[in-house]
Design brief:
Two copies of one chain form a homodimer.
Chain A (H helix, E strand, L loop, with lengths): L11 H5 L4 H8 L6 E2 L12 H15 L13 H13 L10 E4 L1 H13 L5 E6 L4 H7 L4 E8 L2 E2 L1 H13 L4 E6 L13 H13 L3 E5 L15 H4 L5 E6 L11 E4 L2 H14 L5 H12 L2 H27 L5 E2 L7 E5 L6 H10 L2 E2 L1 E2 L12 E5 L5 H27 L1
Parallel strand pairs in A: 1-12, 3-4, 3-6, 6-7, 7-8
Antiparallel strand pairs in A: 2-9, 4-5, 8-9, 10-11, 11-14, 13-14
Chain lengths: ~400, ~400
């Protein structure tokens, strides 16, 4: 059999598909001796093992075999009720169980939303930089992804307005915006309230769908929570995507999407042929975890835990990084984004770091236009204090060494 | 907010998507007083509850938090090894862990395969009738589904040859065949060995991908197992889809796909953006269940159990159905397919049956060309003996009443 004998039969999207750069980096740095600030995975030290074990036992006694039967495609009715109630409390008054679908993680929510809304060549705006899940889902439908700069207030809505107007004038079908409003991956920045209002207004004017991906919003360390785009929207054009991976556990693959009930019904139809239904016991476990008040407790614990890790990493960065390096202070979530001097390439730094058993993610993989060569994403989520100190020191030393070399060369 | 305010923004596929008729029927007959032969769900009485509870407990002790962390997109390495070994024993010598992906049920396997292989307007052949999962996945990519008659030996390969030649001559991109070779849903028929050989040969000649969906193959009640299409193929063009829903439990949403390693790699890339990874504890539970030899035992138990249910239902059909009704004797799986007199409409019969608290699935929903008005699918999988007897008697009486009416009308 020749290598890849079926390539000539692949779909257009398969021929263009790129595996996620981060997964490749994670594979590269899977060696146990590597101190990694790469992955955006939560720290398993915080997983509520005992509670899950106790709940699972109770559920088997209570539900018996029903716990392992197929569920409905839209998800467990009681769980959708409980989640809808949580969202109402969170300012999204119009959410009810019928405008909510349980998904295998928020990744599936975005995937189904793309299936419902994106046609070939439809344009979707994304942050420069952004997490690649949104662009990946859009590209799996042969949609076009256009990058919009992200600054300290999040996605630059003025740039978005100009681009939308320009592209529409040139005849493009401008369809939507993929945005991570809170503690964005990879930059850690939060979309300001003013920008949120502007974005919702802009979406109405240009008839856009907003894909609001919010896996980190509940992990706010400080400052007041800002209203979601969904709560500011009055025209039903926000598909709000949520994940339990960062607030509960990722391995149960739970998330949900909420939006206009017609659109959610379409996502349910798409899910029938995508994987038929979400894992049944996982949904019951989550339902019980919420009912016992444990999710709120877990979120409060996680906030304390990750805040202290953020603070520790910021301290180490102050201590070891030279003045030529800049970064932000995220108010929540998992990530700090770093600018190294413009004459440095983060890919070179990555190779040098891996040689010293330290890993991070180069920023470039988050820029759909291929820019960002001098940026990197650091995650404090998974590494312990010792590893964080070690990794930041090594990265700092490598940058300092580069600056020294430059000085020497300039002097020569 | 107007009803469905976003319809004008839906994708072409969303605008064409039809919810599964069976799910609608299942919703209709969800009342507890209804004796249902409708759903193709397994009987929860056979779910290995105690073993799952014991294994889960052991796994938490053994793996701790790791059990709930993200897994890799392709699935747990040890599980892929164990499944590849099982397939080798089953005559598929060239399967190794790298040519295998764990999926959220076989539905997801077909969905990912469609993503990799189907472009807009690509033609995929399916059985007349067939389970709607294959057609649904193809249509979600705007592929074209063409029905090929199914007879007692399964998909009619001669018809397929003629259609493939005709469509190619007219300039269509003929891309693949979706086939359920064992105890097909809904007909219960098995593709004969000769047809299997012909189909694999035909696929080579016409450069087709074979989507071999085999959720029931291990539930063979009698007769020798036939070689899979994958084991007969020498050119790597079979994507072999498997499910644990009928042999283990459906609620854990586990399945796998095996095929050419290049194509499987593409399916892994597609899965990154579809749902990132399969449920971690579900995979570990299955791995342990197999390692303890329990899956083989479970399958043997299921075979005995469903064989006796099939026999019981066939007896009741002999007893209560008039001579004008015909059906087959499936050698395995869950389904018996019934032809009622040609002047009857199964949809009318269905409405009359539901009025008597009896349900089944009308055959028409399985015919992509809209034919099959006088057919129905009966499942013995979920109903108990009492319900089976009751339902078959009522259906038989309704058909007899129709025949009496006809006689009276003809005489008048």
């Amino acid at each position: 059999m020749s290598p890849d004998p079926l390539t000539h039969l692949y779909s257009r999207e398969a021929l263009c598909a790129q595996p996620s750069a981060i997964r490749d980096i994670c594979a590269l740095v899977a060696k146990p001796e590597v101190r990694s600030l790469a992955g955006g995975w939560p720290d398993p030290a915080k997983f509520p093992l005992k509670a899950i074990r106790r709940i699972f036992d109770k559920l088997i006694t209570q539900h018996g075999a029903r716990l392992f039967q197929y569920g409905s495609t839209e998800g467990l009715a009681e769980l959708r009720e409980v989640l809808a109630d949580r969202m109402k409390t969170g300012g999204m008054a119009d959410v009810d169980p019928d405008s909510l679908i349980i998904t295998h993680g928020s990744a599936q929510g975005m995937h189904l939303a793309a299936q419902v809304f994106i046609d070939r060549e439809d344009v979707v705006f994304v942050g420069l930089p952004t997490y690649f899940g949104g662009p990946g889902a859009v590209r799996s439908r042969s949609g076009k992804v256009i990058g919009i700069p992200v600054d300290d207030d999040g996605l630059n809505v003025d740039s978005l307005r100009l681009e939308a107007t320009r592209l529409k004038a040139s005849g493009k079908r401008v369809k939507g915006v993929y945005v991570i409003p809170n503690f964005q991956n990879p930059t850690g920045v939060t979309l300001s309230l003013e920008r949120r209002r502007q974005l919702v207004r802009l979406a109405e004017i240009h008839d856009l769908v907003i894909f609001e991906d919010d896996p980190y919003g509940e992990l706010r360390f400080e400052g007041d929570p800002l209203p979601s785009l969904k709560s500011l929207d009055r025209s039903g054009r926000v598909i709000h995507l949520r994940s339990l991976s960062k607030t509960f556990v990722p391995g149960l693959r739970l998330g949900w999407a909420a939006g206009d009930s017609g659109a959610i019904r379409q996502m349910v139809v798409a899910k029938q042929f995508a994987d038929a239904a979400t894992n049944t016991p996982a949904q019951y476990i989550l339902l019980e975890f919420i009912r016992q008040g444990l999710l709120d407790k877990q979120i409060q614990d996680n906030i304390k835990f990750y805040r202290s890790k953020r603070d520790f990493m910021l301290e180490q960065m102050e201590r070891y990084f030279p003045d030529e390096v800049t970064w932000n202070r995220p108010q929540g979530g998992f990530f700090i984004f770093v600018q190294i001097p413009g004459d440095m390439d983060a890919a070179d730094l990555f190779r040098q770091a891996v040689a010293k058993n330290v890993a991070f993610v180069t920023g470039q993989s988050f820029f759909v236009d291929g820019s960002g060569h001098n940026t990197l994403r650091l995650s404090y989520a998974q590494a312990g204090h010792q590893d964080i100190e070690f990794a930041i020191r090594k990265i700092g030393n490598l940058i300092k060494a580069h600056l020294m070399d430059r000085k020497t060369n300039n002097a020569a």
